[in-house]
Amino acid sequence: MKTAGLALISLGMSLAAPAFASAESLTDALTAAYGGNPALQAARAKLRAQDEEVPQALSNWRPSVTLSGAVGDSVMRGNYVPNLGEHNMQQTYTAALSQPVYRGGQTEDQTAQAKADVQAGRAQLHNTEQTVLLNVVTAYEDVLQGQALVALNRNNEQVMTRDLEATDDRFKVGEVTRTDVAQSQSRLSGAHADLVRAEGDLKAATANYLALVGHLPGTLTDPAPLNTLPGSVAEARDLAMHDNPQVVAQGYAAEAARHAVDLATDKLKPRVSLDASETNMMGGPEAYILQPPSSNFVVANEKSRVSTATLTLTVPIYQQGVEYSDIRQQKNLAGEARTQLDEMRRDAVDSATRAWENLQAARARITSYSAQIKAAQVALEGVRKENEVGSRTVLDVLNAEQELLASQVNLVAARHDSVVAEFALKSAVGQLTARSLGLPVEIYDPIKHYDDVRGKWFGTSASPDDGDGGK
């Protein structure tokens, strides 16, 4: 009897899950989500798009080359020489090259800003990965908790049914009153309502699990405790302040904002460009007789080539004041980014502290509720025996059963909260990743795509992961 309550909790999941369901560990669920969660895949695609900012910035070092052609035709008829006309057809082909020589430092600062944006994007991907994995852990534990609560409440309904039957039998022989029967009926109705609610909560948790992981849960098992957590709240706070991905992302965002100030200032500096072109022109006037016997005869058929090279220096003097306004604006945005970095650090420290305290509280609750269950089982057994000899009422038995159920439900919740708090703490310090958890997956490497596109001069093919199959 003393171990029945704890056994119900530990086996609640298997009692509630379908018999044909295959076993599924938390590692299995995390692995499935890492490979197929839409939010994570979208974040990776967003970062790949952000990678393109760097080659776009570097392109300002390169020349622009254009080819153009034109064909013209004109006809002129004169009045001074009767029946004589002129036909003029010309063809023009031009090749032009424009090479930026110096853009006032804009290329360098734009490239630096783009690189900072990419680093911020990688940190945001890290944050999305952590969010998805933590959501999966929570969903996994929600299903486990739901299965255990369904099992507990189903068992409680069965116990209340037997109690009502026993009380009704005793009422028929005059051992108890109708009040005792009504109390048993009330508790049975409440037990049924609790079971319906638990089943509804389990269905909702299962739907959330499906949305995050991509399939319905199998036979879930309690995960082992993490052994790589910070050793103290002080260590957790320090790690969170430096390694939390939101802090890292905002740090790079502040760096990008500083480069934006420099980029705005560069617009006040001189610019130098080199332009070269070569134009080939062919054709010329051709005279002809308008009346028969007509005979064309060429007056001129010219060919010419014009080559030019121009080095242009542009010095901005005053452009309506818009550049100065832009500089002031970017400075204020940089100040905002620095303030947001301070805010992110505080939020990260707060998250780490709360996760640490929640974990300690959940572990303490597990110890207390486990002891409470053992005591409640002993008390229930004693109350039932005392009820049999008439020293305890039916209500005393019902209350003892309710107290045992409440302690069992509380233990289930404490175990749920303990696991979630462990992973929340790992997330707060920036360590909730597929790599740090040792998931059996191919780790997504954002640097590979960046290296592929950074120096590209030509081509529209994206990587196979970009959504177009590399076309």
Automatic annotation (TrEMBL):
It holds the Pfam family OEP. The keyword Signal does not apply. InterPro entries: OMP_efflux, T1SS_OMP_TolC, TolC-like. It is found in: Cell outer membrane. GO terms for molecular function: efflux transmembrane transporter activity; porin activity. Transmembrane segments: none annotated. Keywords: Cell outer membrane, Coiled coil, Membrane, Transmembrane, Transmembrane beta strand, Transport. Residues 327-379 form a coiled coil. Its main location: membrane. The keyword Membrane applies. One of its GO terms (cellular component) is efflux pump complex. This is Outer membrane efflux protein BepC. It comes from mine drainage metagenome. The gene is bepC_9.
